[in-house]
Amino acid sequence: xxxxxxxxxxxxxxxxxxxxxRYGPSGVVGLLLLTIGIKAKSPTCSSxxxxxxxxxxxxxxx
Length: 62
What we know:
Blueprint: H1 2-39, H2 43-58
Helix pairs in contact: 1-2
């Protein structure tokens, strides 16, 4: 069980660092809002986070 928790934590930290490196602080804010919205079961918060991330990803294409 500790191995699964450790691997999960490593994956989350790696993914967060990748988002921060690629999309900057606003990407981290979007990811944070999405995560908080999902954990708190708040559709508004998770929708805002998803929109921020979508704008960050599609920004160069627009």
